[in-house]
Write a structure and sequence with these properties.
Layout lengths: L3 E5 L3 H12 L3 E6 L10 E5 L8 H4 L4 E4 L7 H19 L4 E5 L22 H15 L4 E5 L2 E3 L10 H9 L3 E4 L8 E3 H12 L8 E3 L8 H11 L7 E4 L1 H7 L5 H6 L3 H4 L7 H7 L6 H15 L1 H4 L3
Parallel strand pairs: 1-2, 1-4, 2-3, 4-5, 5-6, 6-10, 7-9, 8-11
Length: 312
């Protein structure tokens, strides 16, 4: 019998969760303000404002809920909106498990691999907001599961560090500048692996109310990722330059997008390695190889974003 699963948001994570659930034969209800989402006979799209509408009729009867709605990448907006938004979903879920896609921000800077038992007690700006959100989930009576990923990449991912800022220049034959260092190890999580981990964890009560890491391939450098994307597209690897950390720090003194990026500059000034081995064992899942993930990503871009392919 098909189960009903509810997904809030239709960004790259919510979209992929909905597609994977539908492919498994489940009924899926996608809630977005605009009514957007994948077109599939098993997917119902509803126009719903998570911040103001009554959520009970939209979540009623769900086997699991995947809260993939977010807010603008600004500290003030996160503090103003995110905890209240999550509470509305948790209240309306009324005991149905809610799975959250999570970042690694609450860990702050970690010397060495980031493991599930590393302290999650960061307090600075957006990092601290993630710590507060995790604490609020723990306090709520509704069961939750938080599945964390490093910087992610994959089909539909546009605004990440391995999104349009590197792929569009590769396809256009233009040079690329990355943040802080092109050659330090950095973990990158494949979005379909992220979605699969959330679905698997939500289906297993033994994994509820714990913090998991998405199965993530071994860390590589930003330069190596760019080379793999280029090889997948059968294109020459572009020249890779670096925006020095001191430039990023200077720019982060001014309110705006660069200040927001400055909160996580440490992720690119030092090795940033996610260890997902414990969660892989719990989930029974393995990460997609980077060569396969980058190939699927470039195939999506070449099919879905012809302007980038044509260098426009």
């Amino acid at each position: 019998m098909a189960e009903l699963h509810v997904v809030t948001g239709a960004g790259p994570v919510g979209w992929t969760v909905a597609e994977q659930l539908a492919a498994q034969g489940h009924s899926v209800r996608v809630l977005t303000r605009s009514g957007s989402g994948p077109e599939h006979p098993m997917i119902e799209r509803r126009s719903v404002d998570i911040e103001s509408d009554d959520l009970h009729p939209h979540l009623d009867g769900a086997t699991a809920i995947y809260h993939c709605t977010h807010a603008a990448y600004e500290d003030a907006v996160w503090r103003d909106k995110l905890e209240a938004m999550e509470k509305r979903v948790l209240d309306a879920a009324a005991g149905t498990v809610v799975a959250f896609p999570e970042s690694l921000y609450a860990y702050g800077r970690v010397d060495g691999p980031i493991r599930e038992d590393s302290p999650r007690d960061a307090t600075y700006r957006k990092l601290g907001v993630r710590t507060q959100l995790l604490a609020a989930r723990d306090r709520h009576s509704t069961p939750t599961v938080s599945v964390a990923a490093s910087d992610f990449y994959g089909p539909r991912v546009m605004t990440s560090h391995m999104g349009e800022r590197v792929i569009a220049p590769i396809l256009a034959g233009k040079p690329i500048r990355v943040i802080a260092s092109a050659d330090l190890p950095h973990s990158f999580t494949y979005v379909p692996d992220f979605a699969a981990a959330m679905i698997t964890a939500a289906a297993a009560p033994s994994m509820w109310n714990i913090f998991l890491h998405t199965p993530t391939a071994p860390a590589v450098s930003q330069r190596s990722m760019i080379e793999m994307f280029s090889a997948a597209a059968q294109l020459p690897s572009p020249k890779v330059g670096v925006i020095p950390a001191w430039v990023m720090r200077a720019l982060s003194l001014v309110p705006g997008p660069m200040k927001e990026l400055g909160d996580t500059l440490y992720q690119f000034r030092y090795p940033y390695v996610l260890d997902s081995s414990r969660s892989e064992a719990l989930l029974g899942l393995q990460p997609t190889a980077l060569a396969d993930g980058t190939a699927a990503t470039m195939a999506w871009w070449q099919a879905a974003v012809p302007a980038a392919v044509n260098g426009n």
